[in-house]
Design goal:
alpha+beta, single chain, 39% helix, binds zinc ion, two-stranded antiparallel ribbon
Amino acid sequence: MSRGGTLRRVVLSCDVAGCPVQLEPPPTEAWRNDADARSWARDHAVGWTSDPVRQTDYCPEHGRFSTAPAGDVVPPRPTAAARDRAGNPLDREEYADLLRARLADGDRSTDRTLMLTAAEAAVAARLLDELAGVYRGEGLGLLAREVSALLDGRLGGRG
Ligand SMILES: [Zn+2]
């Protein structure tokens, strides 16, 4: 159909120099965009590991490389929506810590409790799952996953 009928296929390839191992998601997943497809492939690649900081992947044989020190260069991780008072994005790890502290404070105090309908809570949990998928391997993603599980727990199972 488009461009000579060739769908772009996102492959997961081992990032160890000279290693030829690659993985292709099945054609049924070809509708995903690049980032999403890669994320999906990582989730379904048995034995593969990835380094979220360096955005690299390793085949089962080279999995140990994903735990190697990343070096001095850590790319900036600005928040997409959250801003400080001056209007600047925040560091996502710091923001995750901030939110986590706020959650803990709310638990300690007799915080006002908001009621959500089951559908609202379920949708919020699913949105958090998406967020966790985008920020996989980061503090923000972990927090999103935890709060999603918290909401699901209140619902008495996955909705
Ligand atoms: Zn490899």
